[in-house]
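Weekly structure sync, notes
Attendees: PL (lead), two postdocs, one rotation student
Agenda item 3: pending single-chain targets
PL asked that the sequence for the first pending target be pasted directly into the notes so everyone works from the same version. It is reproduced below exactly as submitted, 159 residues in total.
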Amino acid sequence: MSTTRPSQSSNNSGRSRNSARIIAQTTVDAKLHATFEESGSSFDYSSSARVSGSVDGEHQPRSNKVTTAYLNTIQRGKQIQPFGCLLALDEKTCKVIAYSENAPEMLTMVGHAVPSVGDHPALGIGTDIRTIFTAPSASALQKALGFAEVSLLNPILVH
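Predicted structure, written out during the meeting:
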């Protein structure tokens, strides 16, 4: 019996650390979203991510209201983060199983307005991500697929 309690205790502390990381990441995401909304057309994701990512014990988030508003916006149906796109990948094969409507445009795969007869889309269901991203980006995505809680790695910057 005594062997199960330490194991249970370590599981609980692991869960609480995981919850703390998720809360911290959600706070950073909320601040990024608020910065995006305030910036209009001059949003610089990279510099904003560096500034927002520096949340520590000394810098408290703007407010819980910002985080709550962000979560309500994201969790509503038919809403996406306006500063990115979504790819759902099979963790074993690295193939695309779903993607957001804005993914081809965000990943600059739309070469021209009217496709030619022989053109095939670069992004589609079943596309291997290693064929559409640079080697370091594909490697970062493969690494992320190995994590149980990928949201802790967000954002994953790719080229």
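Discussion points:
- The longest strand covers residues 96-99.
- Residues 3 and 9 are 10 Å apart (CA to CA).
Action: rotation student to compare against the earlier draft before next sync.
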